[in-house]
Amino acid sequence: MVIGKEGLEALVGVLAERGRTVIGPTACDGAIVLAELTSAEQLPYGWGAELEAGYYRIRAREDGMAFAHSAGPVSCTPRISSAPTAPSTSPAPIAPRSNGGCG
Fold first, then answer.
1. Integer angstrom CA distances of residue 51 from 21, 44, 47, 59
2. Rounded distance, CA 27 to CA 68, Å?
3. What are phi and psi of 93, to 5 degrees?
4. 65 pLDDT more than 90
5. Which of 15, 17, 56, 80 has the smallest number of CB atoms closer than 10 Å to its CB?
6. What pLDDT was estimated at residue 93?
7. 46 touches 65 (CB < 8 A)
8. Residue 7 contacts by C-beta under 8 Å, 6 or more apart in sequence?
9. pLDDT tens per residue, range 11-54
10. 69 near 44, Cβ under 8 Å?
11. Average pLDDT of 47-68?
12. Cβ neighbours around 10 below 10 Å, total
């Protein structure tokens, strides 16, 4: 199944309306990282990553896809391991970013 930009925007909107914190990839500070999303426009449309030993760079892609990238340089484990085991109405904490926030 492929969901277009409009569908992703609707999905993020519905989740936010229901009090959910939406976490997804976004391009920030030269990397594709996980962050809290308020809009599907924050997804890394058209960005990919070049990976080699000791090397990580994002690069423009021609396909415009939102999820056509490899894992970024930051693990999602802290977000997952700090998440409550039962549904909660409060969002998981977000680590501060060096530039005061991307997206």
1. 29, 17, 13, 11
2. 12
3. -65, 145
4. no
5. 17
6. 45
7. yes
8. none
9. 999 999 999 999 988 888 888 888 899 999 999 998 888 888 88
10. yes
11. 84
12. 13
Dist CA 75 CA 82 (whole Å): 13
Q: Which two tokens stand for residue 98?
A: 């060096």
Q: Which residue has the tokens 């423009």?
A: 60
Place of tokens 């396909």: 63
Gyration radius of the chain's alpha carbons: 14
What ranges do the domains of the chain cover? 5-81
pLDDT, tens digit, 9 for 90 and up, residues 72-87 = 555 555 555 555 554 5
Instruction: Specify whether the CB–CB gap between 36 and 30 falls below 8 A.
Output: no
